[in-house]
Design brief:
By secondary structure, this protein is mainly α. It has a single domain, classed as Orthogonal Bundle (MetI-like fold), CATH 1.10.3720.10. It is built from eleven helices and no strands. The two termini are 26 Å apart.
Length: 207
């Protein structure tokens, strides 16, 4: 969603230094996940950057985010979203370049605002890119393992034990290979169903 908002802002007018912005947004994709995990662990720590920043507004929760049963999973989810936002923006920006600029001009001449441009021009023009981005992000969230393993190892308790980590835990720690295999089959089937639905919903109804 954030990637789509950024793209909508860039699509309305010429932005100087677009190549630089693309590189900055895509940079997380080129950074090792180990480096990303260590950096965010430090920021999420009790005395980390995030709590220090929130402390200025009196919002410091007083504990490390990754040690909270309530906030550990959303914190990891935020890191995953941050990693994939740049990829989505690059996909969307490449799709926006294929849209005829005269369509935006036509909306403005008809008295349309930014929302009308986004609703009637940008979104229909990005149908294919939206399907690709949605497929990548949904599949990445369903099969997520590396960030959880590197940042919390399923903790605290089992609050961040996502399916991918549960499969690893059962197969290589608990030695319950049968259960791990069953979970893997169910997860694979779920991914296939979700991606199939996304592809069907993304098809142009007029085609």
């Amino acid at each position: 969603m954030l990637g789509l908002v950024i793209t909508a802002l860039f699509a309305r007018r010429e932005v100087r230094g677009m190549t630089f912005y693309r590189s900055v947004l895509f940079l997380p994709q080129a950074v090792s996940l180990v480096v990303v995990s260590v950096a965010w662990q430090l920021m999420y720590a009790q005395s980390g950057t995030i709590n220090q920043f929130l402390g200025f507004f009196g919002l410091d929760q007083g504990t490390g985010w990754l040690g909270s049963f309530t906030w550990a999973l959303p914190a990891i989810g935020f890191v995953g979203s941050w990693l994939l936002t740049g990829l989505s923006v690059v996909l969307f920006l490449s799709g926006v370049q294929k849209i005829d600029p005269s369509l935006y001009e036509a909306v403005r001449l008809d008295g349309g605002n930014a929302w009308h441009e986004f609703r009637h021009v940008t979104l229909p023009g990005l149908r294919g890119e939206l399907a690709v981005a949605l497929t990548l992000t949904v599949v990445a969230s369903l099969r997520s393992f590396d960030l959880v393993y590197l940042m919390t190892q399923g903790g605290p308790g089992t609050s961040t034990s996502v399916p991918g980590y549960a499969i690893f835990q059962n197969a290589f720690v608990n030695q319950q290979v049968g259960l791990a295999s069953a979970l893997a089959v169910v997860l694979s089937a779920l991914i296939i169903v979700v991606t199939t639905l996304i592809n069907r919903l993304s098809k142009d109804p007029e085609s």
